[in-house]
């Protein structure tokens, strides 16, 4: 693979990790991040989410939630998700703190507000490399079924970008063909490192 990818959602738990998992299995150079202030997972009710700091190991979250209510967190898919996540990397990472990870060629977000936060962060960084980065938003609802479907669509898009000789020259054509084929609208922008 010739391009380096970042998958980004709000908490680096569901959508970005499902895409990270699928793309990693296909041999892509991929990382994943969240843009939120904290990591939020569903709790016993909407008013009682489970909140963690970025950097808290997925295994720690898994063990804690399994102790609290194993039936609830197994039934709502949180325990299997955390188990999958811990097989990919140690802990959720925050996009805004990823400077040490270097630069990416493509950043794929799964929610418009996350797209805006990534662009804002890139625009406020010091541009030392002047290396272009393609930032694309593929809107995906934050549930397990949609995350799995969205990951497959994200993989298709990344395969199209890999097949291109130069995404910078072909991005308009790639996006137009992709939207027509997938019947999904993409929003994209080009920024710099």
Describe the overall structure.
The chain is α/β, with parallel strands linked by helices and 193 residues long. It folds into two domains: 4-36 and 94-192, Rossmann fold (3-Layer(aba) Sandwich), CATH 3.40.50.2300; 39-88, no CATH class. It has helices at 15-25, 58-68, 70-75, 78-88, 112-124, 144-163, 167-182; strands spanning 4-9, 29-34, 39-41, 50-52, 106-109, 132-138, 186-192. The strands form two sheets. It has a five-stranded mixed β-sheet, with helices on both faces. Helix 1 links the parallel strand 1 and strand 2. Helix 6 (144-163) packs across helix 7. The longest helix has 20 residues, at 144-163.
Question: Which stretches are poorly predicted, pLDDT < 50 over at least 5 residues?
Answer: none
Name the shape in a single word: globular
Q: What gap, in angstroms, lies between the N and C termini?
A: 20 Å
Integer average pLDDT = 95
The major pleated sheet works out as: 5 strands, mixed
The CATH homologous superfamily of the largest domain is named: Response regulator
Specify the number of helices: 7
What fold name stands as the CATH topology of the largest domain?
Answer: Rossmann fold
- How many structural domains in the coordinates? 2
> What is the number of E strands?
7
